[in-house]
Amino acid sequence: MFNAKGEFHSDTIVKLTIQGENEEIFIESEQIFINTGAKDIIPNIKGITQSKHIFTSKTLMNSPILPKHLLIIGGGFIALEFAVIYANFGSKVTLLQRKETFLEKEDKDIAESIYESFQQKGIEILCGVEFVEIEDKGDISILSIKHNRQSLRLEADAILSATGRDPNTQSLCCDKAGVELDIRGAVIVNDKLQSNVSHIYALGDVNGGAQFTYVLLDDYRIIVSNMCNTGYNRTKRKAFPSSVFIDPPFSKVGLSEKEAIKVGYEIKVVRLPAAMIPKAIVLKKPQGLLKAIINAKTNEILGAMLFCEESYEMINLIKLAIDLKLSYEMVKNQIYAHPTMSEAFNDLFNVREVKMASSIQVFDIASIYISLDNI
Q1: pTM for the full model?
Q2: Residue 115 burial (CB < 10 Å; 0-12/13-18/19+)?
Q3: To the nearest whole percent, how much of the chain has pLDDT over 70?
């Protein structure tokens, strides 16, 4: 193992430059695996590279100082997680994003539920922001923006840049190996994770797929399967869950409502307020909303979005049900331990029809949601 900077010298030779030493080593191999991850995208804002108060997710976690006011540039999952972390620590948090709609890729009801939760924590959210300039004034930074046709100057002692991550290939000299990259710099791979140079593979964030640790682990399974000729590849991956560790956590798998409609499914939609789950009351975490999408013709579960406590554990059961093409009734009729969050599936899928739409049947477990103020 070498602690060194690596780059391609050819399609079979990697040049290593030992860090801290003026020494180069050349290693030749019949197979090469690229697993260099991703790096933070720094947005093009005047003054951002000169500011001493700009952080990435990595550097902010290493900072021993709790900011009094944290500005977060970005509206993705990393931005949401850090917003909640620092709001719970006691920092004033303002989240700013260029897009006009908060969590625009999510279903409206889920996005609204998360938005309300953030508001209750005192997190300010500004959408449709135009970023103008960042300038330091001693121990603070001033972020100049335009929002709702107004020019604003926001003061903060820390600014987190959380606008996404790009594949880390810039310094690899992939052209020397003939390896093709896409427009974002990701290594273009086939279902076996081979690049266009068949003995060079790419796994994890660097191949442009979903940026999750467990996807990298599954990429490793594909690599091993290819070496052992056992036939597993990305086409057999099926559904994989994701979790955003906010408070409460948000987890999802499969298709959302609008994705299912776009694909052309005739669907049933079921919902359950987290406040109706006994374990949520025990945990004093009644906030949130559970939602699932069902194929109206086959009763198979197409997807689920769980914004509730312990959703990161619950979602794995739904992932298994989707992979096995189970009827939602199989999940509904299971006997779950009590009290657990998973027993919510007895109620979530125990539906009764309350309204109809042209291609959607919508179900709710209760026509009147329990008011959180009465718990």
Answers
A1: 0.89
A2: middle
A3: 93
